[in-house]
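Dear Dr. K.,

Following up on our conversation at the group meeting, I've run the structure prediction for DUF2971 domain-containing protein from Flavobacterium pallidum. I'm pasting the input sequence below exactly as I used it, so you can double-check it against your construct before we proceed with anything downstream. Let me know if the numbering doesn't match what you have in your notebook.
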Amino acid sequence: MYIHDDNIKLPDDPETVVWKYLDLSKFVDLLLYKKLFMSRSDKFEDQYEGTFSEPTFEEIRKLSINNPEFLDYYKIHRQQVVISSWHINEYESFAMWQIFTQKSEGLAIQSTLGRLQESLSEEKDYEQHIGEVNYIDYKKEYIPFENAFFPFLFKRKSFQYEREVRIISDMTPYSMKIDNGVKIDIDICKLIEKIYIHPKSENWYKNLVIELVNRLGFNFDIEKSDLESEILI
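The predicted structure tokens came back this morning:
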């Protein structure tokens, strides 16, 4: 279930377009099981994920001098927070295709912020929050820590191209052992507005995706990306 939090930054317009770029196996897994995978926060490639900037860390370190468990909480907490990342952009992103899909066999889910929020109503057991990531200088800028989700809503400025919005869940109350992540129930039809096939893919690949989607009982609008269309002279 999606829980709105006034303290978490998010675009006001529910029609804000969001994207998820993924490979075919992850896409089939999503459709087949109708579950969205959320990765454990400390499993991301960015080692700073869920950590604090230097000014904030200095403050926390001072507070934990007589209370070492205060700092330990934040270290352990990273293992209990799971995240699904989405990209805010009115249009497709060439960079996202390059980074998040392998070779020419990937696809992109186009959705909106409103659809994302509505699709989470399918999950009854775990709470989800949605927030926009802030990009800051970790050597100079401060990350608030009065909200347990704030460390996961800030990243270094070098990741600014991601323009990320995140679905976040804190699994601590559920006493779960999380390996790589968890899967949550999601309304696939509300989630997906359109599917784009990799711009470098061949026609057989597009036909394969269409056939897979149809056999799994869905009827989404599917088209090949036109980022690689022929140049007109």
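Two things stood out to me. The mean pLDDT is 90. Residues 203-215 form the longest helix (13 residues).

Best regards,
J.T.
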